Structure to design on (1087 residues):
């Protein structure tokens, strides 16, 4: 079944020429249902209907214009649909349709909303009322005269009230807001590119989506109106050739594992170990294909058959008792039904790629819907080929294959073999360690690190297959890997790779807008993981501190903190500066292999290791997945695959060449970075920061420095193949830079303006600015879409609410304090999503929100308290400050703020500015009370002032002795000699003071000082003394007052009063329970 609906604000149909143009366009676009708004038509239109839509079987529903404004019309082909009027609203028109050739019944509401926010509220109420009376599939479309998000309007940075109301209405309606293909905006004021918005759209209920495998909302060319027509194309996906994929649910089929073992042990292959393994996997694939034909996953039909058989037994049981054998058969049918349902849920979970939600919670429909939604989003129904949009799948496949052939083809016949100066090297011992033989324990450990259910490569086997059947496969796998170790080669078939195309944005129509993710085979993935795990152990030595990606102990937030503090210092200093954000064009895909091997050689890697990397890189053959179908089979000449476990680490090693060039430039003062310091510590200068291919350059606004920078980039491109995309790079002035355009001209990039973003973090914003969080609110709202709630159990909704926090607000909350208003808005979204999952769409709060935020052991639902989570995340920085020794971020912070003691910076009272550290430092007083010091040498610990021997400082336990101590700031190490403790006082002690000193020495009796150990700060609330965000969060929850605690206190007080009045066994317990219910559930709510 296919349905095509067109929605268009035509801006009037009174002119004969206008109707003629509209008629031709409608004929060209070929929709089944046509919605025209702002028709400006009144009265009878029979005489002009043919001039609007040249279809003699046209049916029409109409809402007349008010004077010369408004008007809505719904047209349909009577040969296909039966249509009838359902409702005429103040700003909408609703029709009901049923198929002539099928039993598909549905409703459509055409909208032409008023420009006035207040009047539009009437429309929102009408739509919400309509929801209660419409059962079944429902589409709402038209001109809403308001955008949903700030990103849907040009020059709009903040969400306003009208947008929030519209978005809330969509959520209340539980509508799906499908992505728009073919453009970002649907209305533009003339040709003014600075005044455009997306005010026209389609919305559909979740049930509509259940009837179609393909749903596409596309913007058509803007002709005859200042609005783009919007086409909603819905249909079932045609048959497409797919490739073999091992199904996870097969593992649940009785006898399946034994069958696999039987097949594997029957295979007899001779040759190299890798050839034997490859052939066995190929033979097993053939067996599985054959077996799967008789074990198809038609779960719906299988469940219906089982239920039908159970029903038959129940009919018999009404007439006579069932025999023992018949009861067993009936019981087995029930068990079989549960097993089939479980298989179905596992299968749809595998297709959905959902990692945060486990099967077993009756979320099959949710997995199904998510899998279908992902398939729609990732499908390539149309593509720009040679400047034209085409839907021809053959042309699309040919274009995709040619594009990626060229992408991985080396464009230069020769590149200079330039030796990079100032590159770190590994030792000979480390070289030998990296090239040692692979043992079974290491191989199994690496296998278990691989994600179980990630999409497989051309072999079709996910890593779960290898993990599940390890004992069966391990002999062949170990021999294959050992052969690779000795001979530096493996079967080329292991390195066959699928390129999966993931859209970078909704509505992607150009191949440049797709991210190529490589799906590699299971055996190669295991080999690559082995090499990657070894490589990770030496990266810290090889990668300079200015690179933050993929090195243990360095985090993405480190780079964001450093850059924000540097910008903050420069702004407060008042001197002009420049920040350049570089976009490296197709970074992973353009790495030159010779350059990579050359730099690895300079870093001290051995010949065997270089040969391993060369084999992994140069034996790749690609096929492109276009709508799930493999296309082409071609070799590559350059690049690293995104999806290969080795690639991230090899890429940062390649980028160390650029890093080294920048270091030399700053050391020679050719480029001068931003300085921070002057607080009693060594001044630090930051000229560049790298996180994989995200690069920031900081320098003075001097043409000579910009020219040097340009030369470095040209040289680096020549040797590495990595080229800057200047069209996507920007130069930002920090403070006033009059010659900014001339500077940007030298580089050939655009001029940007602070604030901006870096690594997804706000940069250059005031730390309290609400606009920092607008993007988070928008993304959270999209993630917690109302339609999803219908398909999830309460447990599933709880998991989704908390998992969304792990990837959205939590990231920004790790560096910036969250304003109360933002917490309020996010809580509103989460609260609404949690309770709206009833099938009738009505949400009933089972407990109030404050209770829901409590931990489960205190009667809550375990939903994250955002304010507390934010504080716990920020405290992680304070913990890292006490732990880390040589981190670049810590060096910058110490240089800028000074060090109060070894555990924390000085308190700062200067304005907050655009930096983040002051807000983090403000939490030290809370953090300090939950820490204690484990003394090593005693050189970092204050004897009297720090917490190290008891739960309180000695000055608090012995204030009298502290008053007369010789040095109040003495370190523990200063008070220790080889003979023992040596406490110095300013005068001779009285007899009673001697007794007090004896008390101290008694406490210190078990303590010894180790001159070779370092003092460490430990967290009081964990067994190992290590801080964690979860531990800090749980600790914070304990201090929150619970309504349940109030209820218990209330009940206890009632019992006490009853006893005082002489009631031994009060019979008012029902009333007490009612009060308890009110305290727990109704406190703070409107009565």
């Amino acid at each position: 079944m296919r349905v095509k609906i067109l929605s268009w604000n035509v801006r009037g149909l009174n002119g004969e020429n206008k109707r003629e143009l509209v008629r031709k366009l409608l004929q060209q676009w070929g929709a089944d249902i046509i919605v025209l708004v702002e028709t400006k038509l009144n009265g009878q239109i029979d005489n002009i209907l043919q001039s609007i839509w040249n279809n003699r079987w046209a049916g029409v529903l109409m809402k007349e214009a008010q004077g010369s404004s408004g008007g809505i019309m719904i047209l349909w082909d009577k040969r296909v649909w039966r249509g009838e009027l359902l409702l005429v609203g103040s700003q909408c028109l609703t029709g009901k349709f049923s198929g002539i050739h099928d039993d598909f019944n549905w409703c459509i509401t055409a909208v032409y909303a008023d420009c006035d926010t207040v009047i539009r509220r009437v429309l929102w109420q009408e739509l919400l009322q309509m929801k209660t009376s419409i059962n079944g599939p429902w589409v709402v479309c038209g001109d809403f005269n308001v955008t949903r998000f700030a990103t849907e309007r040009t020059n709009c940075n903040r969400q306003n009230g009208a947008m929030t109301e519209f978005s809330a209405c969509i959520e209340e309606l539980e509508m799906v807001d499908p992505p728009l293909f073919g453009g970002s905006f649907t209305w533009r004021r003339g040709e003014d590119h600075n005044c455009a918005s997306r005010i026209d759209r389609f919305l559909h209920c979740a049930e509509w989506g259940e009837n179609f495998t393909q749903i596409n909302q596309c913007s058509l060319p803007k002709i005859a109106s200042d609005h783009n027509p919007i086409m909603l194309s819905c249909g079932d996906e045609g048959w497409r050739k797919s490739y073999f994929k091992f199904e996870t649910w097969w593992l649940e089929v009785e006898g399946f594992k034994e069958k696999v073992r039987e097949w594997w042990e029957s295979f007899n292959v001779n040759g190299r170990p890798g050839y034997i393994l490859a052939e066995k996997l190929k033979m097993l694939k053939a067996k599985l294909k054959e077996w799967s034909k008789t074990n198809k996953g038609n779960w719906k039909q299988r469940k219906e058959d089982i239920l039908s058989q159970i029903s038959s037994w129940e009919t018999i049981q009404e007439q006579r008792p069932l025999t023992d054998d018949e009861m067993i058969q009936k019981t087995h049918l029930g068990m079989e039904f549960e097993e089939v349902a479980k298989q179905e849920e596992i299968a749809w979970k595998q297709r959905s790629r959902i990692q945060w939600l486990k099967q077993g919670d009756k979320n099959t429909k949710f997995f199904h819907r998510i899998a279908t939604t992902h398939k729609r989003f990732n499908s390539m129904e149309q593509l720009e080929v040679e400047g034209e949009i085409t839907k021809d799948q053959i042309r699309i496949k040919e274009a995709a294959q040619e594009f990626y052939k060229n992408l991985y083809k080396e464009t230069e016949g020769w590149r200079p073999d330039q030796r990079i100066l100032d590159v770190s090297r590994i030792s000979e011992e480390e070289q030998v360690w990296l090239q040692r033989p692979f043992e079974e324990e290491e191989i199994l450990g690496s296998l278990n690190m691989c994600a179980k259910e990630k999409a497989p490569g051309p072999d079709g086997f996910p890593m779960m297959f290898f993990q599940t059947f390890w004992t069966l496969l391990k002999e062949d796998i170990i021999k294959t890997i050992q052969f690779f170790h000795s001979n530096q080669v493996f079967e080329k078939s292991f390195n066959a790779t699928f390129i999966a195309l993931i859209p970078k944005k909704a509505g992607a129509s150009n191949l440049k807008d797709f991210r190529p993710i490589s799906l590699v085979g299971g055996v190669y993935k295991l080999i690559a993981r082995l090499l990657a795990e070894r490589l990770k152990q030496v990266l810290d030595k090889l990668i300079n501190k200015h690179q933050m990606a993929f090195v243990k102990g360095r985090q993405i937030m480190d780079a964001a903190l450093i850059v924000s503090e540097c910008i903050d210092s420069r702004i407060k200093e008042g001197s002009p500066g420049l920040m350049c954000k570089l976009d490296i064009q197709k970074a992973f895909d353009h790495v030159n292999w010779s350059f990579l091997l050359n730099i690895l050689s300079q870093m001290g890697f051995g010949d065997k290791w270089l040969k391993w990397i060369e084999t992994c890189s140069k034996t790749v053959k690609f096929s492109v997945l276009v709508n799930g179908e493999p296309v082409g089979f071609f070799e590559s000449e350059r690049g690293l695959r995104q999806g290969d476990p080795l690639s991230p680490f090899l890429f940062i090693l390649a980028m160390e060449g650029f890093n080294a060039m920048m270091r030399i430039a700053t050391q020679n003062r050719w480029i001068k970075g931003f300085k921070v310091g002057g607080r009693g510590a060594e001044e630090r200068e930051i000229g560049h920061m790298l996180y994989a291919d995200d690069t920031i350059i900081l320098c003075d606004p001097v043409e000579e420095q910009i020219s040097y920078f340009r030369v470095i980039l040209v040289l680096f491109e020549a040797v590495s193949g990595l080229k800057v995309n200047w069209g996507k790079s920007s130069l930002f002035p920090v403070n006033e830079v009059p010659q900014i355009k001339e500077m940007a001209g030298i580089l050939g990039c655009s001029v940007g303006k602070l604030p901006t973003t870096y690594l997804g973090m706000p940069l250059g914003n005031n730390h309290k600015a609400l606009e920092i969080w607008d993007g988070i609110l928008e993304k959270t709202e999209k993630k917690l879409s109302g339609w999803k709630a219908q398909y999830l159990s309460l447990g599933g909704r709880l998991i989704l609410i908390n998992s969304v926090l792990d990837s959205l607000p939590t990231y920004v909350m790790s560096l910036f304090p969250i304003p109360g208003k933002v917490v309020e808005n996010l809580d509103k979204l989460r609260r609404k999503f949690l309770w709206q999952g009833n099938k009738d769409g009505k949400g009933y709060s089972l407990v109030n929100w404050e209770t829901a935020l409590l931990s489960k052991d205190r009667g809550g639902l375990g939903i994250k308290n955002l304010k507390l989570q934010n504080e716990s995340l920020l405290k992680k920085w304070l913990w890292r400050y006490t732990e880390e020794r040589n981190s670049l971020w810590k060096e910058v912070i110490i240089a800028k703020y000074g060090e109060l003691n070894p555990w924390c910076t000085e308190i700062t009272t200067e304005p907050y500015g655009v930096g983040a550290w002051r807000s983090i430092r403000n939490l030290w007083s809370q953090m300090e009370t939950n820490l204690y010091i484990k003394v090593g040498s005693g050189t970092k610990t204050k004897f009297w002032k720090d917490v190290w021997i008891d739960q309180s400082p000695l000055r608090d336990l012995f204030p009298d002795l502290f008053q007369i101590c010789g040095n109040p700031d003495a370190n523990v190490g200063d008070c220790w000699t080889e003979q023992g403790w040596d406490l110095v006082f300013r005068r001779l002690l009285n007899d009673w003071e001697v007794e007090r000193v004896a008390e101290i020495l008694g406490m210190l009796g078990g303590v010894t000082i180790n001159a070779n150990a370092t003092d460490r700060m430990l967290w009081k609330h964990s067994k190992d003394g290590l801080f964690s965000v979860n531990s800090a969060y749980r600790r914070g929850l304990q201090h929150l007052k619970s309504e349940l605690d109030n209820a218990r206190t209330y009940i206890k007080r009632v019992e006490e009063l009853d006893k005082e009045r002489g009631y031994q066994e009060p019979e008012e317990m029902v009333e007490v329970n009612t009060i308890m219910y009110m305290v727990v559930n109704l406190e703070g709510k409107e009565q």
User: Anything to note?
Assistant: DSSP finds 39 helices and 36 strands in the chain. Residues 1066-1087 have pLDDT under 50 and may be disordered. Residues 1043-1081 form one domain.
